[in-house]
Amino acid sequence: MLAAQAKQPPANENLDVEKYVGQIKAAGGDATVYVYPGEGHAFMNSRPDSIERMKTADVPVGKRETRDAAWSRLLDFFKKHLG
Known about the structure:
Number of helices: 3
Helix content: 40-55%
Largest sheet: 2 strands, parallel
């Protein structure tokens, strides 16, 4: 499992990522979580119309460096697990 978590209040306050990762590892699975401080929901979306909606909704717009790192990690994960 690969998880990218923005460091903003989660939409689901009951989500406990650390607990979930612990359960996956305890069951013999592999899990990695990357936390991106200061990023909001959909921070990986760089479409101009999406960025405008984020600005209008007062949602933090993802930093390019953070977005690039997150995409790189996601694509590496896909290559490793999906061939």
